Amino acid sequence: MSAAATAWVLVSAALVLFMTPGVALFYGGMVRSKNVLSVMVQSFVAMALVTVLWAVIGFSLAFSRDAGAGLIGSTSLFALGGMGHALPGFGHVHVSTETVMIFQMMFAVITAALIVGGVVERVAFRGFVVLIAVWLLLVYAPIAHWVFSPVGWLAHHGVLDFAGGTVVEINSGFSTLAVVLVVGRRHGWPRDPMQPHSIPLSIVGAAILWFGWFGFNAGSALGVGPVAVHAFVNTQLAAAAGSLGWLVFEGRKERVATALGGASGAIAGMVAITPCAGYVGPMPSLCIGALAGFVCVAAVQVKYRFRYDDSLDVFAIHGVGGVLGMVLLGFFAQRSVNPSGADGLFFGGGARLLGWQVLAVLATAAYAFAATYVIARVVDRLVGLRASQEHEQRGLDLSLHGESAYS
Q: Of the candidates 322, 298, 304, 297, which has an alpha carbon nearest to the alpha carbon of residue 174?
């Protein structure tokens, strides 16, 4: 173990955990005042529920060695047993298994919390809790094993994903889309205006996300060194470029540049750079961030055309942004930035990496969407995912939680 590496990863884990309250604020500001507490409760219950499930079985399913083709782990690390042994494929890492476990726990927490944004203002609390519990074990853990575990089938074939373009971003985006299609639209959407009740609250949440993302990306180096520095720098550059890209698109199309657009663009840029952060140079990071700003703001318009109510644009920002980042990594990756990576198409590496990146995108998106759709259908039938129309009209804060954000 390295004391410096362990300290950095633990600090990074705390930064990633801090992102979940950031999500709660970001989402909470964008809903109507009668629903703000329900959004925050869902985010906080995700922190508690995922923590317990991850410690008991989720970590084992994601990171232990399976007996088959690298599809899912075994129960050999059940209840955090075997913490004194190195994880399969992690022999080169200078932090303990328990350090990896707590860092990866925070990734699972934030991914579950992101799903909240698609179904705000009409999801039943009990149904949401059951959905997240089942989803973590049957969707998140297998995908994490595919990519984050060196013995997973995608990682084994050389797929690059530095900090979760597949596991976190594509997974959350396509899972949210599936749940949205099961739950249905809010009553009155898109006919009735449903304006954010507190944009300043959302800006504060976005700022917390920006801050925490340095732990998310740079911490994924699992140590201190040049790769962590690259990831830190690239995160900042992509966030800034994404914010500017979104604002330019807004300015040309809508003739305004909104505060919420600037914040959303920064998040889009960080989503796209997440898989690339430790594998690309700084100038490609600017390009990736700027493209994410343009592409994700355009993707937001798709829900109005197809009339699915992804309330806070989780699919457009995280799903589409994650796809963009994973594919662009196949073009911009440089072994000179990270010797454990590969050279992309633009740096003489040929098309092999790009092909596997595309395959990883397709496999993750298809599995996340299909499996989550089935889970949501079953949970809806057995427990109920949709709040009643009376509760929705009154507001979920008072109806489901007996509290109000503002007296």
A: 322
